[in-house]
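Researcher: Here's a chain I'd like modeled. Treat it as a single chain, no partners, no ligands.
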Amino acid sequence: MQTITITGGHTLQGTIRPAAAKNSVLPLLAATLLCAGPCCLQNAPELSDVDTSLALLQAVGAKAVRHGPDLCTLPADVRDLCGEIPPHLAGAMRSSVFYLAPLLCRTGMVRLPLPGGCRLGPRPVDIHLAGLAAMGAKVELEGEAVTLRRFGPLQGTDFTLRLPSVGATMTLLMAACCAMGTTVLRGAACEPEVCDLVGFLRACGAQITGEGTPVLVIQGRRALGGVRYTPLPDRIAAATYAAAAAAAGGQVTVAGCAPRYYHAFLTFLQDCGVEVRPGESGVEVARDPARKLHGGQHLYANGWPAFATDTAPLAAAVLLTADSPSEIYDHLFANRFACAAGFAAMGACCRAEGRRLWIAGGADLHGARVQAPDLRGGAALLIAALAAQGVTELCDPGHIRRGYADLPAELNSLGAHCSVQRGKIPERERTTG
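Model: Modeled as a single isolated chain. Structure tokens:
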């Protein structure tokens, strides 16, 4: 088991550039199964979820490898593809759900054990399944797995999502590209990552209109070829670096990610008293550590263009030392603030009540031994540790590697003091083989 040790009290200086967005790269990798030519995704981050996706592609019979910073796939013959997704890969990440549509379209059948990932509360796949059923798929629920079959090609449909789910919008986009006729998706998600998937599919030959709006129109049965594609930069990683500068103090330039991608978070930082100087493709974030941040914030995390749910724990870390109370409500996930226990161990007065986190502010943070409960909560605890006096030990940080290639090293490049220790595996956790 790993532990990240953070010595707080060091301001940050320098320039940092996020890699391609995790939340784009994962569905794009699944979408390459639909392509009749080779695909290359450029500047892809080295994340554990990306590694899992590559392993999943290989497990179902596709060819996918990393060449330096790029991910490359070769077209798979349908005779080599298998619709059975291994349980250990499905359980490792929520994004295994993106393989439902491509494998159903290519093989006629797909079986997916219920996907895993961070424990953020109920994250149903019913919208994915309802949309695919509307296109003609037969859905069979069996205990901890779902099986989909088609008898003949999927059919275009006019389907309204009951809520703007990013994942379901992406699943139905991929399925609609292979369906006969026209599909209209209403109530679709408008996030930049959805627009990025549309851009990728269109570059491969798909005919799609309406990205960035709640209504998408897809003309199906277009032959999809290969493409060399650069996914958009990771706006959540960019927000993480900006939050670190706000919490620790100093001056950091986040380059290569347009401020419009995380405008709501940058506006929040400005409201807290952080200097935010946006440019065309980057932003400079500065804060004098001797000056208190402003509290009194009431944040509501929801779908685009609202305050992003993945940035809610990062905002909480910034607000722990602010001059007055704040609160954050997450409309999307019921257990977003599992990091509150770690904040409290570091001396913060905060309370999670369902979807709401209440933060008293004014904390004198100190080092403590805490545990990363999930991806963004773990990153938030690391950010809080930068602002704390003394040494913090962040235990079991494996979740963080799902969204950041090496967050401690990235922050160290800006002047943070983080180190990673690898402890012995307890006897009860060892496996033979």
